[in-house]
Amino acid sequence: MSGVGKIVKKCLGDMSFNSGGGNINWYPGHMAAATRAINSRLKLADLVIEVRDSRIPLSSANQDLQPRLSSKRRVIALNKKDLANPNIMHKWVDYFDSCKQDCLPINAHSRSSVQKLLELVEVKLKEKIAKEPTLLVMVVGVPNVGKSALINCIHQIASSRFPAQEKKKRAKVGPLPGVTQDIAGFKIAQRPSIYVLDTPGVLVPTISDIETGLKLALAGSVKDSVVGEERIAQYLLAVLNTRQTPLHWRNVHNSTLKELQNETDDKHDYNIKDLLPKRRALPVASNVHYVEGVAKEVQSALYTTLSEFRGDLEDENDLEILIEKQFEALQRALKISNRANEARMMVSKKFLTLFRAGKLGPFILDDVPIVTSKS
Fold first, then answer.
1. Nearest 10 degrees: Cα torsion 316, 317, 320, 325
2. Own/partner pairs, 10-13, CB within 8 angstroms, 24+ separation
3. Does the pLDDT at position 118 exceed 80?
4. Dihedral (C-alpha) 155, 158, 160, 165: value to the nearest 10 degrees?
């Protein structure tokens, strides 16, 4: 068992992700009805766009739908590519290509990126277009992979292509999983008529692999309150440590130390006001710089704790001790008072926010499967 697997089992306890009880029930009632509706419409679809999260190309696949999807014309859209490690992304494209599966990394908020996806869809539908007057494209995926953002961008492109087309309601977009809870469609092309159906994000009722469930939680496909922010943060730290990612932040650490030294050198005169506690106001005009500064302090704190670590990352007890020290270091880096209520929860929330926004760098959490060539 890997170091991550051990820390998951020891620190996070025995968890189960299912609809019928256990520690974590992450399968709301509406998902069962949505899954039935999706299955009934899949038989009518001429092509399926399966949206996955680029950071978890395998873990973000709804395994219950895969048998049905594999028999359809399908394009896998790996969304949020801006948050994924570009040095590994091409390996995933090669992997899907080896599986004879069309795959395209996209950013659903980029019109040019979505345009490339539509061009691929049209190529895949070329034979059907010549025979059918009306075609149906379905967009499916687990919660919070960016389906609604993709639908909205496709609608904008369709509206510019066909300005006379009746205006349609944009798909709802929200930061929490489960915003789209109904199936709705709109026309994106004429001659032939092409309709796109947006669907709710649905999870499988049971996830047997705990790490897969935690990856989905880390990517935001499950509400944090369902799994627990602290559990998710512990898992993220376990992943970063076993990959030794913080050691790559040495330059960030040195830069942070230099900035602190310059601040100290520039301050020569002291008065009584310097001894008074100061309220740290968030600069309105430089929020981006402020967040980047916080991210650097977090990276520096994790670099320091890991570089000073003398234990074995493959030993679950040592890894647990390291993670505890890192929570303390993160609390200082994030300026959260020891006396603050639920300080650990606040640390976890801020740490996860930085990761999900890409402020700690681009990541891909899944490992590319090894494909054995058939002779």
1. -140
2. 10/316, 10/317, 10/320, 11/234, 11/238, 11/316, 11/320, 11/323, 12/210, 12/214, 12/231, 12/234, 12/235
3. yes
4. -100
How many C-beta neighbours within 10 Å does residue 320 have? 16
Q: Which two tokens stand for residue 86?
A: 């570009």
**Amino acid found at 297:** E
User: pTM of whole model > 0.70?
Assistant: yes
Question: 287-312: per-residue pLDDT in tens?
Answer: 777 888 899 999 999 999 999 999 99
Residue 103's beta-bridge partner residues?
A: 76
Q: Is the pLDDT of residue 5 over 80?
A: no
Q: What is the largest CA-CA distance in the chain?
A: 83
CA 149/CA 170 separation, integer angstroms: 9
> Are the C-beta atoms of 326 and 237 separated by less than 8 Å?
yes
Mean pLDDT of the chain: 81
Give me 132's structure tokens.
């059918």
> Containing H/E element for 103?
strand 102-105
Backbone phi and psi for residue 33, each to the nearest 5 degrees, phi listed first: -65, -40
End-to-end CA distance of the chain: 31
Assign 102 to helix, strand or coil. Answer: strand
- Please give the C-alpha separations between residue 341 and each of 11, 151, 336, 350, in angstroms, as whole numbers: 22, 41, 10, 15
Range 231-248 burial, b when 16+ CB lie within 10 A, else e: bbbbbbbbbbbbeebbee
Integer Rg of the chain from CA: 24
Q: Is the dihedral of CA 282, 287, 293, 297 positive or negative?
A: positive
Residue 173 has a pLDDT of: 47
Cβ(238)–Cβ(15) below 8 Å: no
Q: Rounded distance, CA 71 to CA 64, Å? A: 13
Choose among 28, 60, 33, 40: nearest CA to 212. 60
145 and 174 Cβ atoms separated by less than 8 Å: no
Nearest to 352 by CA among 215, 211, 218: 218
Burial of 112 (0-12, 13-18, 19+ CB in 10 A): exposed
